[in-house]
């Protein structure tokens, strides 16, 4: 049923409503929305509670290192812990809230170390990488709260050419106990600081034990060479100036080749390293040798000229070994990779020896070109003299 009168009255009221009243209603809606948003923003930007580390002199003084930098490598850096909200009854829900270190984890730990440990730059610089750093709490059956600190720090030695990983500190960390109805951060702060001090003490102990003998902590490198010349076996002839080759050193049955003779020279090295008083000593024994059972000569070629040609093959192996020594100098090695660098240089020198042996045979036409042979004789003798192999 239609009610014209009612519709008319409503329309009349609508027309009589002042414009200001309509604006006021809109403003109320806007203010309500703004108030809601403001509350949401306020909640989202609420500051995370922080705790400060209290610096002071630690019960030890590092004599081998100082902390050069602290780097936070954690995937999640929003907080270092999640503590339980205060509860007055056991049946209340267990809720957590985040906490952080004052000024941020990286800055706070760095400041604590700078103010607590001597910064003696005459010592070895160490970089701390924060791998894991978290405080967690859980309710206990007795109605209290149990806290646990987990701290993992990696310690790297800083060098001019990069960093070297030394050791890692990984511990379950300190435990603490507090009342369930408290919001105090004191217990968590003390436990965390205790874990941090334990990590630094661990590093100091490690350095004290390893400083003189650990290769990673060597301050410099010294290299020495020894030539192995002891010909005490019959299966190998080691290079010695006073022990040139003789035809009796060629024991293999002659092969059906157009060459009159063949010698099998080679060179190798053995190395031993140790750290003494912070210095890495690398002792290398060079072995230049030929294998009689792989070397042969035909009967018609057993003369002095042919023997000299084969001796020069042996001399070339010695020359390359001397050149190899020149490559292995302290300034060409690094503490962490000295072994692989030496091995790489040896492989490179081995290629050089093979190339030089081939060049020698090609230019002398396996000794049949006497003029070329004489030039190589002079060249080899001059280089042997430069290395003080021959006087």
What attributes does this structure have?
391 residues, alpha/beta, Double Stranded RNA Binding Domain, 2 domains, eight-stranded mixed beta sheet, 14 strands, disordered N terminus
Number of strands: 14
What is the 3D form? rod-shaped
Structural class: alpha/beta
**Strand residue percentage:** 25-35%
Largest sheet: 8 strands, mixed
Describe, in short, the structure shown.
The chain has 391 residues and is of the alpha/beta class.
SSE arrangement:
Blueprint: H1 4-16, H2 19-44, E1 50-51, E2 65-72, E3 81-84, E4 96-101, H3 105-116, E5 124-139, E6 144-159, E7 162-171, E8 175-179, H4 186-210, E9 220-227, E10 237-238, E11 261-262, E12 265-276, E13 279-290, E14 296-297, H5 304-327, H6 338-364, H7 370-386
Parallel strand pairs: 1-4, 2-5, 3-5, 9-13
Antiparallel strand pairs: 3-4, 5-6, 6-7, 6-8, 10-13, 11-14, 12-13
Helix pairs in contact: 5-6, 5-7
Can you describe what's shown?
This protein has 391 residues and is of the alpha/beta class. The protein has two domains: 162 residues, Double Stranded RNA Binding Domain; 170 residues, no CATH class. It is 37% helix and 27% strand. The strands form three sheets. Strands 1, 2, 3, 4, 5, 6, 7 and 8 form an eight-stranded mixed β-sheet that branches. Strands 9, 10, 12 and 13 form a four-stranded mixed β-sheet that branches. It has a two-stranded antiparallel ribbon with strand order 11-14. Helix 5 runs antiparallel to helix 6. The longest helix is centred in the C-terminal third of the chain and has 27 residues. The N terminus is likely disordered.
